[in-house]
Specification:
Helix content: 55-70%
Strand order of the largest sheet: 1-6-5-4
Shape: elongated
Protein name: Membrane protein YhaJ
Number of helices: 5
Largest sheet: 4 strands, antiparallel
Radius of gyration: 19 Å
Organism: Robertmurraya siralis
Strand content: 15-25%
Number of strands: 6
Keywords: Membrane, Transmembrane, Transmembrane helix
InterPro entries: DUF3267
Length: 181
């Protein structure tokens, strides 16, 4: 296989810039979603009991997000390296790396699965729990902010040839094509 393109994600964006982009996206998403949903659903009152559920949702969002990245590639077995670090002894930080090339389609599915699954579930919950629109909007904005790096990866990968393979490295990823393309 030949390398079609190398994307150095660290060099292109940098961790601080990526954090700021995610934070700003989160803020804009909250404002737009809250304005839209509060006008669309127009609940008579907003409840602020069950704040602990919101806090649990925020705490569990990142591990759920990472787990949903892993789900589509779990069947690949040994080529997927999984590492769990425990922060403060209770909070799991998951690292998932694919150390061999996988198809572009499978990589994109794994990359975007958390965005589509969690956003869909939260969108449905708007209509089931309309008195908690503000809580759901906070969770949705947080999820969108977490998905910013995934979206940026997907934008770069989308331009690759149809039958390309993607291989992750320490700073980003390489897009590989077979020699006959």
């Amino acid at each position: 296989m030949n390398c079609w393109k190398t994307i150095n994600f660290t060099k292109q964006y940098g961790p601080q810039r990526l954090f700021i982009i995610s934070l700003m996206t989160m803020l804009v998403a909250f404002i737009i979603l809250y304005m839209a949903m509060s006008h669309l659903l127009v609940p008579t009152t907003l409840y602020d009991n069950h704040f602990a559920v919101l806090v649990c949702g925020v705490i569990l969002m990142y591990p759920l997000h990472k787990f949903l990245h892993f789900l589509p590639i779990a069947h690949l077995g040994a080529i997927v390296k999984k590492k769990i670090e425990w922060k403060f002894g209770i909070y799991p930080i998951l690292e998932i790396k694919v150390h061999e090339p996988i198809t572009k389609t499978l990589f994109l599915v794994a990359l975007l699965m958390p965005l589509f699954v969690i956003t869909t579930l939260l969108s449905l919950s708007y209509f089931l729990f309309e008195h908690y629109v503000h809580y759901i909007t906070i969770l949705m904005a947080y999820q969108i902010g977490l998905s910013v790096p995934d979206i940026l990866h997907a934008i770069n990968i989308r331009k690759a040839p149809k039958n390309a393979y993607i291989e992750e490295n320490e700073d980003g990823f390489e897009i590989l094509v077979t020699k006959h393309q």
